[in-house]
């Protein structure tokens, strides 16, 4: 059977953007990542361990091909020395451990961050596709195509309605929890053909290249979390991360993620300097309307016209939720919608809520204090309590 991953481009753009930033600024950082399934699966994920091991073995045999490096090098924010690093890069099998504990699947990645950070998306895609190979039925993809057709029809009907000041734009963020690589390609091909004015990009670098659409992504939680373990004052780690990003990309990739220690703590650090330098911010947890109103109020307080900025929504979106948020905000500011599972794994089967999160940096714990309690992650309660205290975030 075809391996789940056959190209190292088959990952999210923000892995490359964060990877380059860390290679240039903190190449000696050590990091640990852990796999977590947040919901109940149809069967014990531990049963997948042998197949996951085999897929990771194959992943570690891959290298970047000349045409892939040429594509990456053509992105204006990717530097030539990073391309040279990728030219000789290979995943090291010794940095990833797969085991079981009762019914649970355990995956831990640990080593130099610039050698292990890219495992995340591949591991999640592997687990997800292996899982759905077992639970899918003969009519699963037929149901997926029916639902995809309904999405296209709904968006065409929405396009005929009166528009807000700013256009409706959505993109695919569904690689990590996709039904399969082949299905993601079919979905994106359909959306690109049927809704070219609305569907404007994907986080999947391979499919962006193959379908000639825009690759989209900037930073994830791990980027800001890493700075919790880099020796800067903990209270200043968000500012340090944002400043390093500005210096690395100098105007490109200007969307900042807000929920590493919560929106309120983020806005306290997102002063006039950063608010002017970044094109916008991304929502990934908590009530999106409340979040968006806080963002617009913050821009107004700084005397920045919100119409010049962009709010990107990316938390558990479906088409109807995007439309509601668009109608609420798009007369005041630019909006973008990164849709994940609802695009790439809406085939009538219950989905997995799997993540692989950064847990330690240079031997020290790091944490994410999400605006949604279920998304908060840390394996050290003492550090989590301290982080809350430092930023004044209630437990």
UniProtKB/TrEMBL annotation:
Keywords: Glycosyltransferase, Ligase, Phosphoprotein, Pyridine nucleotide biosynthesis, Transferase
Top-rank EC class of the record's enzyme: ligase
Entries under CDD domains matching the protein: PncB_like (cd01401)
Signal peptide per UniProt: none
Keyword Phosphoprotein among UniProt keywords: yes
One annotated GO molecular function: glycosyltransferase activity
Cited Pfam families: NAPRTase (PF04095), NAPRTase_N (PF17767)
Domain Nicotinate phosphoribosyltransferase N-terminal, first and last residues per copy: 9-128
Substrates-to-products reaction catalysed: 5-phospho-alpha-D-ribose 1-diphosphate + nicotinate + ATP + H2O = nicotinate beta-D-ribonucleotide + ADP + phosphate + diphosphate
UniProt PTM: Transiently phosphorylated on a His residue during the reaction cycle. Phosphorylation strongly increases the affinity for substrates and increases the rate of nicotinate D-ribonucleotide production. Dephosphorylation regenerates the low-affinity form of the enzyme, leading to product release.
The organism's place on the tree of life at top rank: Bacteria
Enzyme Commission number(s) of this protein: 6.3.4.21
Domain Nicotinate/nicotinamide phosphoribosyltransferase: 168-394
InterPro entries recorded: N/Namide_PRibTrfase, NAPRTase_N, Nic_PRibTrfase, Nic_PRibTrfase-Fam, Nicotinate_pribotase-like_C
Phosphohistidine PTM sites in chain numbering: 221
Pathway assignment: Cofactor biosynthesis; NAD(+) biosynthesis; nicotinate D-ribonucleotide from nicotinate: step 1/1
Job description of the protein: Catalyzes the synthesis of beta-nicotinate D-ribonucleotide from nicotinate and 5-phospho-D-ribose 1-phosphate at the expense of ATP.
Family: Belongs to the NAPRTase family.
This protein's name: Nicotinate phosphoribosyltransferase
Species of the source: Rubrivivax gelatinosus
Native organism taxonomy: Bacteria, Pseudomonadati, Pseudomonadota, Betaproteobacteria, Burkholderiales
């Amino acid at each position: 059977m075809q391996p789940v991953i056959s190209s190292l481009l088959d990952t999210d753009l923000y892995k490359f953007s964060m990877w380059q930033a860390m290679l240039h600024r903190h190449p000696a950082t050590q990091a640990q990542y852990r796999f977590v399934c947040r919901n109940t699966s149809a069967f014990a994920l531990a049963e997948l361990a042998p197949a996951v091991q085999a897929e990771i073995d194959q992943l570690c045999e891959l290298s970047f091909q000349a045409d892939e490096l040429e594509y990456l090098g053509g992105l204006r924010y990717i530097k030539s020395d990073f391309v040279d690093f990728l030219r000789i890069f290979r995943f090291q099998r010794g940095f990833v451990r797969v085991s079981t504990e009762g019914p649970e699947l355990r995956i831990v990645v640990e080593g130099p961050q610039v050698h292990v950070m890219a495992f995340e998306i591949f591991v999640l895609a592997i687990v997800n596709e292996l899982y759905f190979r077992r639970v899918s039925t003969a009519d699963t993809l037929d149901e997926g195509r029916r639902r995809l057709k309904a999405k296209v029809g709904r968006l065409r009907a929405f396009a005929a309605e009166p528009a807000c000041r700013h256009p409706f734009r959505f993109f695919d963020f569904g690689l990590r929890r996709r039904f399969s690589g082949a299905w993601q390609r079919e979905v994106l091909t359909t959306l690109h053909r049927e809704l070219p004015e609305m569907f404007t990009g994907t986080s999947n670098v391979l499919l962006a290249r193959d379908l000639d659409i825009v690759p989209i992504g900037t930073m994830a939680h791990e980027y800001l979390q890493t700075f919790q373990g880099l020796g800067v004052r903990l209270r200043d780690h968000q500012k340090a991360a944002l400043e390093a990003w500005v210096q690395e990309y100098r105007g490109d990739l200007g969307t900042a993620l807000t929920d590493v220690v919560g929106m309120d703590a983020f806005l306290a650090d997102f002063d006039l300097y950063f608010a002017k330098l970044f094109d916008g911010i991304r929502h990934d947890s908590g009530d999106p309307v409340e979040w968006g109103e806080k963002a617009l109020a913050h821009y107004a307080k700084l005397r920045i016209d919100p119409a010049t900025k962009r709010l990107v929504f990316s938390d558990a979106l479906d088409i109807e939720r995007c439309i509601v948020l668009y109608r609420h905000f798009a007369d005041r500011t630019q909006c973008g919608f990164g849709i994940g599972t609802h695009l790439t794994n809406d085939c009538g089967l219950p989905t997995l809520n799997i993540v692989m999160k950064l847990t330690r940096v240079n031997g020290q714990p790091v944490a994410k204090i999400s605006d949604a309690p279920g998304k908060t992650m840390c394996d050290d309660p003492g550090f989590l309590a301290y982080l809350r205290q430092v930023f004044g975030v209630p437990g």
